[in-house]
Design goal:
Elements: E1 4-9, H1 17-30, E2 31-32, H2 36-45, E3 51-59, E4 62-74, E5 77-86, H3 95-110, E6 115-122, H4 125-134, H5 148-154, E7 159-161, E8 166-171, E9 175-176, H6 180-187, H7 192-200, E10 208-216, H8 218-237
Helix pairs in contact: 1-2, 4-7
């Protein structure tokens, strides 16, 4: 699905009032149990971040989604975090991961010796699947053992998943507005990443998110590029 996109940067060209109105409408529509204004103030306006990158997605002149990446210091590490919302019919395509990994690469290439991680609280099994299928290294995952020390460090107030005995769950102040049928479909899914997500985080529909960590490094970009090429080759061959 193709969109018209507009990019914003906190330290250069931030949101105009009409853009803010579009974002508030998305937050109100896509998340349950939150104040749109409060959410906006926390993620789009607070002074906790030293940088923000935002992409707005438009279809036929209507704003249908956004992806926000925030940059903050965590002791000697730099953490990139994401917030995204799309109206239901526009949620396919992995837009959040594509935007996030691009912004991560741009930051890393200018700061190659910093310790950089992308950390995201994922309420959506579909978002987790899009990320886990595309990133070569992502924790927790089916592919590799997760480093417990990073979850203890970055998600210190989070909860432990009984499935993994890992502090990879986080109670958040919202739920995604999935229907009963959507939730049932996720919990019965045979897709490996979605089935894994639902076992690790069975209460995702009750406001519990999966805390996902992706290391940003040369190894990550090299292996992800190879993985992407392999997926494209397999899709062409099938």
């Amino acid at each position: 699905m193709k969109f018209d996109t507009f990019d914003f940067q906190q330290t250069k060209n931030w949101l105009k009032p009409h853009h803010k109105k579009d974002v508030l409408a998305l937050i109100e529509n896509c998340f349950n149990g939150v104040s749109a204004d409060g959410y906006f103030d926390k993620y789009f306006s607070s002074d906790l971040c030293f940088e923000r990158k935002l992409r707005l997605y438009y279809s036929h002149g209507e704003c249908v989604g956004y992806c926000l990446i925030t940059f903050l210091k965590k002791q000697k590490d730099v953490l990139l975090k994401a917030s995204a919302a799309f109206y239901p019919k526009y949620r396919k395509g992995g837009n959040t991961f594509s935007f996030a990994i691009t912004q991560a690469f741009r930051y890393w290439i200018n700061h190659p010796f910093q310790s950089i991680f992308y950390a995201d609280t994922m309420l959506s099994p579909a978002m987790y699947r899009a990320t886990a299928k595309k990133a070569a290294i992502a924790w927790p995952s089916l592919k590799s053992t997760s480093p417990a020390r990073l979850f203890e460090k970055f998600n210190a107030k989070g909860n432990i998943s009984k499935k993994l005995e890992l502090r990879c769950l986080k109670q958040v102040d919202r739920t995604t507005n999935y229907s009963f049928i959507d939730i049932k479909r996720f919990k019965e899914s045979k897709k490996p990443e979605i089935a894994f997500y639902c076992k690790v985080n069975p209460d995702f529909d009750k406001g519990t998110a999966l805390f996902v960590i992706i290391p940003i490094s040369l190894k990550q970009f090299y292996l992800t590029a190879l993985h992407t090429l392999k997926l494209r080759f397999n899709n062409k061959s099938s």
